[in-house]
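Feature request, filed as a ticket because there's no other form

It would be nice if the structure record came with a short human-readable summary line next to the tokens. Right now we just get the raw output. Example of a typical job, pasted below so the devs can see what we mean:
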Amino acid sequence: MPKINLLPWRTELRQRRKKEFLVALAGTLIVAAGVVYLSKLTVQGWTAGQQGRNQILRGEIAEIDKQIAEINGLQAQRERLLARMQVITQLQRSRPEIVHLFDELVNAMPEGVNLLEVVQRGDRIELEGVAQSSTRVSALMRNIDDSDWLRNPALDVVQAVARGVDRNSQFKLAAQQVPMVTPEGEPAEPAPAAPARRRR
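Raw output as currently delivered:
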């Protein structure tokens, strides 16, 4: 005689499948959570590594900025030292010029002319003095114009002043000094002398 199963097998099958589905769903959620957690850890590791590299780069950049500031300071100091050396060199080169200048002034000074003041501003020489007449002042200007190391005499002031019974001419004039050394440091050639230098 055939056996008939009258138990609720469909309900059991449904419940078994439901359990299997829930187990599979739980497993999937656990695996997904694990993947998400591992991904988070991986991203955090990458971020921490990148932040560490960024910190190293910031430290290197700060060190380079410090070195650049030191280099700029050294360059500024070098420029100051070069400027001082140039001034010292120029002073050493022009040291004999003052002696030469006074020698030229003595040679250019005609009789009857007395200097009261000599002022040098760069290559400009300002002379103030007293002459017996304006003719003596003209002779002084001609002698300066004929000089090898002085040129371009220009009369600023000449006026007659009475000193006792004598009437003298008080004058102020300026001339340009010819440098003995060129800006390149070479000895300068004197201006060509006039054919006949007159001294009075």
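Something like this underneath would help us a lot:
The chain has two domains: 8-96, 109-177.
The mean pLDDT is 81.
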